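Support request, please re-run this one:
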Amino acid sequence: MIDFHTHIYPDKLAGRLMHDLADSYYWGHFSDGTQNGLLASMDEAGIDYCVTHPVVTRPDQFDSINRFAREQQETGRLIPFGGIHPDCEDIPGKLRLLKSQGFPGIKLHPDWQGMFIDDPRMISLIREALALDLIVMVHSGYDGAFPDVSRCTPGRALHLLQQLENPGHETRKLVLAHSGAHLQYDDVKRYLLGTNVYFDISLSHMYIPDEEFLTILHKHGAKKLLFATDSPYADQKDSVRAIKKRPLSPEDYVLITEGNARRLLHIKSC
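Re-run finished. Output below.
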């Protein structure tokens, strides 16, 4: 089982961040936000690999955040993405550096980075990353820390997709988190179902009942859904139990929980 959306922080910062972020803006935390905490949570939940996502909120954080991310590669079970800010200098060079360092993709968070997803700078960055065959993970929908604005709505995400080159029959290596857009599921159904983009399904078990989840699955396609939790902001054990209870065919269950992620991340089956 592969969890495609998790976060960890340096030990010296994790405690404060869990209080300032998880407890203040979200709904608490379910591990301590550290690398060891995530590995312990994975063991309890029966998860084999986790993709970790850093968020670069200022261009000057590029080196330090990605240095911490690279250290996670040594675990053999954590697959870190690189972090980059759309206002970084020399975007093409930085993306090539991240790829050379073994990162399979990058994480963007429009709200924390203060930029709409269809801003020309975001579009240019995403176009460059996809051209390098990097996966691009984007926070999409509501974020509790920004209750008055959502910088990646389904409508804006569709506008982004319209600006990118047509990849042909192959789904773009672009992932919209939280089932297309957290807590904006009516607009997900209106604008994004069936488009050439992946959804991770983090937090879906908390907000999307089976009937609505099956609508997303059937109209978007099981081959474009990725199991994810958003740990430490959700309990990995609960997320695993929830996906096992969904009325999925065995084939769709395997695709969602590991098959699609293995293909994207080039992880061989055992």
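The first strand starts at residue 2 and ends at 6. The chain has a mean pLDDT of 95.
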